[in-house]
Amino acid sequence: MNIHEYQAKELFERFGVPSPNGKVASTADEALAAAQEIGPDNLVIKAQVHAGGRGKGHFKNGFQGGVHLCSSPEQVQEIAGKMLGEVLVTHQTGEAGRLVRKVMVAESVDIDKEYYLAILMDRESGAPVIVASTEGGMDIEEVAESTPEKILREGVHPLAGLQAYQIRKLASKLGFAGDQAKAFAKLLSSLYKLFISLDCSMVEINPLVVTPDGRVLALDAKFNFDDNALYRHPEVKAMRDTEEEDPREVEASEYDLNYIGLDGNIACLVNGAGLAMATMDIIKHFGGDPANFLDVGGGASKEQVAAAFKIILSDPNVKGILINIFGGIMDCNVIAEGVVAAARETGLELPLVVRLEGNNVEAGKATLAASGLDIVAASTLADGAEKIVAALK
């Protein structure tokens, strides 16, 4: 789950991570009021969408940039009017862009130096790792490619936690000294407490800045949370903005289905994440393009399967469907009943290939055969992939 920058500021304030004062607005008049409250000048307005590269982005109405420095509340109001209700296109959104429903008005601070700072879960070690660089304010991927030696990594023991010597080590390598080193230490300690307390999978500050008066501030932030731990944090779950997400993924989450939309035309319905990945791979191997990742889980009900079927059919790019089920806990006949119910309800006319194997497979095959639907049976995963690719050709 992602959150907006203005919500990140709320979490920073809660955990004592220093950040410039800011307020969210949904209308130009609200933006004006926020700007008047924050200060008469030295203001910045930022479009609030779940995408990076906002400053270099452009709006489909011709207005350039999703981040602007402003010298007066009236200028904030004017720019808010050009952003709100318009579509912002960045390198991360693609040409479709994102509709801007909110803007954040914040104090603009003078900057002496920009840094990059992030805490994330390292999959290889299964523990948190701190990533930092003196090259802040730019894409970290670009830094990693052009000057990888400027990226610092510091692993954190999951039980011992972040140690004082590790903070001093990072501060030294980043060039902090004296009061600035103390300010950085306080910020990083608070940030790590936030990361652990809220079950984050990533907290990224880009840039982390030092001001002429020596303050160390988190200027821009991006959060990711472990979805499996959100039940422990209802206040964070309430920050979810479903309007920023693919509506198919939102609907899938309501049925506890794992769905991610892709660009291909062969829809997949599979039980198990690993099997779903293998199914996508073998479709590519035989010359096809998967339209989605869809894992219905190990114990899906007939209703969940029917919902999954309808979700993949809501994608207009889908021209064929491959169902690949290996029944362990899952009952193959439950899958078959869900497929038949959904196919009848939607009036399915697309090619449908089904491969069932495992628990109660004979009953599942019998249910499909007795349905009277035009379903192509496959004996193996490779057989199913070949058949669905051939059907589309």
From TrEMBL:
Positions annotated to bind Mg(2+): N206, D220
Annotated SUPFAM superfamilies: Glutathione synthetase ATP-binding domain-like, Succinyl-CoA synthetase domains
Cofactor: Mg(2+)
One Gene Ontology cellular component: succinate-CoA ligase complex
Highest taxon of the lineage: Bacteria
Free-text comment on the cofactor: Binds 1 Mg(2+) ion per subunit.
A Pfam family per the record: Ligase_CoA
Recorded catalytic activity of this chain's protein: GTP + succinate + CoA = succinyl-CoA + GDP + phosphate; succinate + ATP + CoA = succinyl-CoA + ADP + phosphate
EC number from the UniProt entry: 6.2.1.5
GO molecular function annotations of the record: ATP binding; magnesium ion binding; succinate-CoA ligase (ADP-forming) activity
Keyword terms: ATP-binding, Ligase, Magnesium, Metal-binding, Nucleotide-binding, Tricarboxylic acid cycle
InterPro entries for the chain: ATP-grasp, ATP-grasp_succ-CoA_synth-type, ATP_grasp_subdomain_1, Succ-CoA_synthase_bsu_CS, SUCC_ACL_C, Succ_CoA_ligase-like_bsu, Succinyl-CoA_synth-like
Broadest EC class assigned to this enzyme: ligase
Binding residue positions for substrate: N271, G328, I329, M330
Keyword RNA-binding assigned: no
DNA damage found in the keyword field: no
Record family assignment: Belongs to the succinate/malate CoA ligase beta subunit family.
Assembly mode: Heterotetramer of two alpha and two beta subunits. Heterodimer of an alpha and a beta subunit. The beta subunit determines specificity for GTP.
Protein's recorded name: Succinate--CoA ligase [ADP-forming] subunit beta
Organism from which the protein derives: Sulfuriroseicoccus oceanibius
